[in-house]
Structure to design on (471 residues):
């Protein structure tokens, strides 16, 4: 049945609806997630926050994302993509809305609610990409998977625009606006059915045929009734099964950890660093973030194309090596000017082409390297493990600069170059893992990838079995 899907050369209107629902979800999801960076720029002065307190607020969502990615990802393999998609949206939307009630000097309240925002964001990211991929032809999977992530910088850019327009005492309105993603739940209910591949793996073959027929806009009777041969045998998901695929685990876990540590360390701190280093207002810092969002968007579109043109491994290497080198260069020029403008700001804008743009590879690829019955569990584990970067990225910078220092413009920040070397090395590690250890999935159907991964797992199991023949 899925061979008919793979032979399609164009997308139907319903496939575009599936793609649109995921795109809107990602944009609003990361709008919610990165709001705290703009809000923090308003609070560092009035609340007299230290680097340590600010890092606690920034990293709390990272802790939540780790838990959310593991739990929601596992649930998506057990109970279905659609149900989990709706649940994660409600999770982060409600938590963001409650942030509107943050009391003055309530950085602890901020940290606690940000934890719950993180659980929803971590979960949604791990279910919407596999959901889209399982409805798309193989030759378009890399491009479309990257396209879903392309709007994430636009979500950050929306936060930057709103931050630039807000008065110093209106930052709570940013959180109130963050409730809007709950409207996406209605779109999902109207548009997106359950994944046909997930239904097929549950033995619900008639439902799988109806789901795919809806996506292809044909009558169910026009498609053959699928069998276990179409999506493999019915397999009950187990966490321990992840370790049967060591290469998938190493590539997806370490690639995510390197990319997330670098990009979240920079993105969450950037507005506050602009205020501190460049002596600008929070509103001006938000405006400066718009350029970074634009270059990140251009990068994601480009890397979506690179994933099919160059392959996943080469594109992943380009992400890590390009972002790593430019991050380090930016750190060493934090107080320089270029053409009368801040060299730090301009270099970070170019860095974002690789650092943020490369996430058009990171997310989709983390789903592709796992077999179908572990797709969201594996991606969730990778995104969850990589979520450590949401903690050690912002906290690492704070510790290097001096966690007890107050965030004010007269604090000497001579350790900025060292902090950016730290973040840059995480990018370089991701580039090494993707390029030298990656599994190439370009042009392969999901079923072909499943067979190759199963074969490699069987070989590894037989090699470690005590009954295996010895030389």
């Amino acid at each position: 049945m899925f061979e008919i899907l793979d032979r399609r050369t164009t997308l139907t209107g319903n496939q575009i609806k599936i793609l649109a629902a995921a795109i809107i979800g990602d944009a609003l999801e990361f709008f919610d997630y990165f709001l705290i960076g703009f809000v923090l720029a308003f609070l560092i002065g009035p609340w007299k926050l230290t680097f340590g307190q600010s890092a606690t607020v920034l990293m709390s969502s990272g802790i939540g994302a780790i838990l959310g990615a593991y739990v929601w990802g596992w649930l998506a393999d057990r109970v279905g993509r659609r149900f989990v998609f709706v649940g994660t949206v409600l999770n982060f939307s409600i938590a963001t809305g409650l942030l509107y009630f943050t009391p003055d000097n309530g950085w602890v309240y901020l940290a606690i609610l940000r934890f719950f925002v993180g659980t929803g964001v971590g979960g949604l990211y791990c279910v919407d990409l596999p959901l889209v991929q399982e409805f798309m032809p193989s030759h378009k999977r890399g491009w479309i998977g990257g396209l879903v992530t392309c709007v994430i910088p636009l979500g950050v850019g929306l936060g930057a625009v709103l931050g630039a327009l807000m008065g110093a005492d209106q930052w709570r309105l940013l959180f109130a606006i963050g409730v809007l993603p709950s409207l996406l739940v209605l779109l999902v209910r109207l548009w997106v059915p359950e994944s046909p591949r997930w239904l097929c793996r549950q033995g619900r073959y008639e439902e799988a045929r109806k789901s795919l027929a809806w996506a292809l806009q044909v009558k169910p009777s026009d498609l053959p009734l699928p069998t276990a041969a179409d999506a493999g045998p019915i397999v009950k998901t187990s966490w321990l099964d992840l370790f049967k695929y060591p290469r998938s685990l190493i590539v997806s876990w370490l690639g995510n950890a390197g990319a997330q540590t670098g990009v979240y360390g920079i993105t969450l701190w950037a507005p506050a660093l602009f205020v501190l280093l460049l002596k600008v207002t929070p509103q001006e810092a938000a405006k400066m973030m718009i350029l970074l969002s634009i270059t990140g968007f251009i990068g994601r579109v480009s890397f979506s194309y690179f994933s099919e043109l160059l392959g996943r491994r080469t594109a992943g290497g380009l992400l890590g090596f390009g972002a790593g080198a430019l991050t380090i260069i930016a750190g060493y020029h934090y107080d320089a000017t270029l053409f009368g403008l801040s060299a730090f700001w301009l270099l970070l804008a170019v860095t974002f082409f690789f650092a943020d743009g490369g996430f058009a590879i990171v997310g989709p690829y983390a789903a592709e390297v796992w077999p179908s019955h572990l797709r969201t569990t594996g991606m969730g584990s990778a995104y969850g493990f990589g979520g450590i970067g949401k903690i050690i990225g912002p906290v690492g910078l704070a510790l290097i600069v001096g966690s007890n220092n107050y965030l004010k413009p007269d604090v000497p920040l001579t350790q900025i170059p060292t902090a950016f070397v730290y973040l840059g090395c995480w990018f370089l590690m991701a580039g090494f893992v993707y390029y030298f250890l990656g599994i190439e999935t370009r042009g392969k159907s999901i079923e072909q990838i499943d067979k190759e991964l199963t074969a490699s797992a069987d070989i590894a199991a037989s090699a470690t079995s005590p009954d295996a023949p010895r030389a």
Remarks:
- The two ends are 43 Å apart (CA to CA).
- The CA atoms of residues 111 and 406 lie 18 Å apart.
